[in-house]
Amino acid sequence: MRPYVICHMCTSLDGRILGNRWGKLPGYKHESELFETTAASFGIGAWLVGTTTMDEFDGPKRPLPRAPRNFKRGDYIARPDAKTLGIGADAKGVLRFQTDEVGGDHVVLLVTERVSNDYLAHLQAAGVSYLFCGKKEIDLHTALRKLAKGFKLRKLMLQGGGKFNGAMLKAGLVDEISHITVPVVDGGVGVTGMFDIPGPPPRRAAATLRLMSQRVLRGGAIWARYRVVVRHTR
């Protein structure tokens, strides 16, 4: 069992996701207002991002204290009863959370066997939960299964960058896409998109979708929701 995954993102008309490039959007004080209000309407208490996005929320990169000599490695769930979760991937142990919350959401990190005992001891001291999800890279299937079991998650909102969203889509783990198109053309070459899958161009699309609903929001933004009906994993 794994959670039902909804990827919720705001993009320009040409699919770019870096909202700080767009200026003030019509009808909104800031791009984040549009994103956050629509995301909150789902009532989903858990969000998932990759390392780069999660790095926006952690603390300064200070040296780690040494872990106890008898430190035991294994999954660590500090708050199994947490109602809301901020989940991030951290395969190498580079994040430095000093507390166990982001905006009131309990922090859960997906780690690999590459991370040190010093790093794990630091997370425990900060009250951060972590789950082992692979040897060198994050096994996304394992991660979702462990999240479902450890925190009784039934739904999860994916809000990562292009590469992490692309990895989730490639793994066949995105069930629904909630896409808000803002009335802006970005035009930037090399600017990250909603789903970026590295490697040679695929022979076919990464997924086939079915439109579930569509709304025009204030300021001319268009909110469309799609169900993923065919996962072209490769």
Description:
With 234 residues, this protein is α/β, with parallel strands linked by helices. The protein has one domain (4-231): Dihydrofolate Reductase, subunit A. 19% of the residues lie in helices and 26% in strands. The protein has five helices and ten strands, in the order βαβαβββαβαβαβββ. Strands 1, 2, 3, 4, 5, 6, 7, 8, 9 and 10 form a ten-stranded mixed beta sheet that branches. The protein is globular and about 60 Å long. The two termini are 22 Å apart.
Which keywords apply here?
10-stranded mixed beta sheet, globular, 234 residues, alpha/beta, Dihydrofolate Reductase, subunit A, 10 strands, 5 helices
Give the helices and strands, then pairings.
Elements: E1 4-11, H1 31-40, E2 46-49, H2 51-54, E3 85-89, E4 101-102, E5 105-111, H3 117-126, E6 129-132, H4 140-151, E7 155-158, H5 162-170, E8 176-181, E9 207-216, E10 222-231
Parallel strand pairs: 1-7, 1-8, 2-3, 2-7, 3-5, 5-6
Antiparallel strand pairs: 4-5, 8-10, 9-10
Residue share in β-strands: 25-35%
The fold-level CATH name is: Dihydrofolate Reductase, subunit A
Roughly how many Å is the radius of gyration? Answer: 18 Å
Mean pLDDT: 93
Give the second-level CATH assignment, the architecture. Answer: 3-Layer(aba) Sandwich
N to C succession of SSEs? EHEHEEEHEHEHEEE
The portion of residues assigned to helices is 10-25%
